[in-house]
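Q: Structure for this?
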Amino acid sequence: MTTRREFLVLAAASVGAAGTAQAQLDPNLAAQRKAAFEAAIRRVVGDAPVRPGKVKLDVPPLIDNGNSVPLSVAVESPMTAADHVKAIHVFTEKNPQPNVVSVQLGPRAGRARLATRIRLADTGNVIAIAQMSDGSFWSDSAEVVVTLSACLEEGLI
Amino acid sequence: MVNAIVNVPAQAKRGEVIEIRTLARHVMETGFRRTQLGELIPRDILTSFVCTYNGTEIFRAELYPAIAANPLLTFTTVATETGTIAFRWTGDKGFSVTETATITVT
């Protein structure tokens, strides 16, 4: 039970916090996130083209709670010493930080499969990029609708 | 309290692709959340995970704040020889947990 005094202190503090939060919220936040998303992908792939295909990203199309979203990635590859998947990277468009996970594997993995649980701040695209041993990059993306976001305060745009 | 759970089949045939499931206990505080008073909660996450099979690295993952609390990682490997599979998670504030599992390959 919150007393009247505690309530007043909290109310005053939250007004103050809201003021600073407002001052920090950039009107171009969406554009900045998109730029950060593209920059993060460029850091991984460099100038190489990223082609759609070979990768299968499995993530539910509608999420109740963005704090825990099951995600799995499977890449078509024989996984031999000559032809295998070297790395799988996952990025999101709307999170405060675009990187989600980067894994390195090799022919000893047998199959290029990965499953984990991620956080999503807002409705947007999730993309998985696979780096092959021959240096080519393949990707798959999915649009996910999030009803309750993870890290609410920063997630609202 | 256990800090990590790994699920590795106890036995496998040589050359068989086995699935390894791992779960670590960690809050994965993102560093983007604020307290009721508006102060930023400092980041505290697991940053890396490495899996070795008889000393040879077979899988490595770099984790970011966008990984949900209590990180679950599922991946596969080829059962090559009898031995131990070791797992190591490291993170912010000097966090480090290791776990091992043994596998018999026939």
